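Sequence in, structure out.
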Amino acid sequence: MFYVSEITHEAPAEFENETQRRIYETLAALEIPFDRVKNDFIISMEDCEEVNKKLGATIVKNLFLCNRQQTEFYLYVTRDNKRFKTKYFSKALGVSRLSFAPEEALTEYLGVKIGATNPFSLIYDKDCKVHLAIDEDLMDYKYCACNDATNTAHISILMSDLLEKYLPYTGHEPVIVHVDEDPEE
């Protein structure tokens, strides 16, 4: 059985990485309340469902992308069940076709490993080199739920706190995008 702890409202006693430390320090500094659960390492969407049930929110999907030259980087935050095709996302942004960024770039710009990408990790990107795109579908979400720069804990905050407090503090202004899904699938 997949383990998910009871909800807490406190940062972990010890941090697993620098980004995780910065996330919780920023939430505290901005007085943003959060729900937090610890969980087994997530490897499937079914695992996410268990976390969703406990948090009463849906974990968002986070994709880290770049252009061919690896000079422009994008964090795309969307619904967990939305199909993703780079051609539709690139078209929505009006940029050349993007692809998944290499793991080294993920670590360099967001301070996380594959599987731990999230909008909170933008706190690591002090120079705002990563462009943030949020799917318009999420504007109807009450909460933003995602990992805390690890794969073994998840947090949830009000979407309004993310948009109005957290992201402005990081210096990242999101672009709200409408991304079509492939009608043939």
